[in-house]
Amino acid sequence: MKTRITLILISLLMIGGLFAQYDRSSSDNRTPVVQEATRAVTNESVFADFLAGGYLMPISINYFSSDSDDIEGLSSVNLSILRWGINNMKIRGEKAPIVMGYLGLFDNAGLTYASVKDEEKTAFYADIVSAYAGVTYPVLNYLGYVNVGAKLSAFTQTPLYEEIELGGAKYKYVYDFEDDNGDRTIKESTPITAGLELAARGGFRVYQNFFLSLTAGMRYNTARDGNWYLKSDVDDWTSGNAIFEPDPWLPAATLPLPERNTIFEGASPFIGISLGTNF
After folding, report:
1. Is 59:275 a contact under the CB 8 Å cutoff?
2. Closest C-alpha to 216, from 273, 265, 160, 171
3. Which end of the chain, N or C, is more open, meaning fewer C-beta atoms within 10 Å of its C-beta?
4. How many other CB atoms are found less than 10 A from the CB of residue 258?
5. Rounded distance, CA 85 to CA 102, Å?
6. 82-103 burial string, b = 16+ CB within 10 Å, else e?
7. Which residues contact 58 (CB under 8 A, 6 or more apart)?
8. Percent of the chain topping pLDDT 70
């Protein structure tokens, strides 16, 4: 999987370079006077559309550093379903920065890959709804940009394990035990939590309205506590064969259970590359 992501990364850079070369070659064939007049208008309008948002882009590849000792080699591939952006391009001063923002719907949805206790695992994740605010400085006559900003989101992710079998016993990760007049259920899916992302970006237009961007930042996801339990104890409680809720399996036990059942919890520094027709 790591090899696949690296190949995708290299392919994006190569495609971006080819598009950029093609764009430059095509531009060289234009009449100089017409070229400069057209570029001044076109570049700004294309960049305005880039900040205005859109569907299914950008597509991104990211590499994370996890704060869990159990998780290594964390990477992801994701896209944006919808972003609706606003900015002050039309009313700002000539050299003033662009103040911008957007509202997102599944604007960061994708697949993560990691090695968890030396076992390869994948999980799906998404910012269900999000709000972004930032400042952008156009460069090279709107052919490129630098940006800093922050995003808040309602975040969801699939669990790493439905259950784990170790030492001849099975274990489940449970967030809560609920007893509604004898109707006993457990919550084992990851709850929706809050996410905060701080990032700096820089990018340039590689072909028509496509921008290739690099990102470096920090992501922080709140987490709701859960615990590992013997599956047999959980089954006894849900079936009514046990009066009291089971005790969690202690982290100090010798069995190598992961300390959590999710990829994203706490702080996760990251770097990434993206390609798309909108920010």
Report:
1. yes
2. 273
3. N
4. 19
5. 4
6. ebebebebeeeeeeebbbbbbe
7. 79, 80, 211, 213, 274, 275, 276, 277, 278, 279
8. 84
Sign of CA pseudo-dihedral 205, 210, 215, 219: positive
pLDDT tier at 202, thresholds 50, 70, 90: very high
Q: What is the pLDDT of residues 204-232, one digit of tens each?
A: 999 989 999 999 999 999 988 888 999 99
**170-191 confidence digits (pLDDT tens):** 999 999 988 888 788 888 888 8
Q: Please give the single-letter amino acid code of residue 67.
A: D
Q: What is the pLDDT of residue 253?
A: 61
pLDDT digits (tens, 9 = 90+) for 10-46: 444 444 443 443 343 344 444 444 444 444 458 999 9
**Residue in the structure block whose two tokens are 């550093």:** 65
Distance of CA 128 to the CA centre of its chain: 11
Which amino acid is residue 182, in one-letter code? Answer: G
pTM, full prediction? 0.77
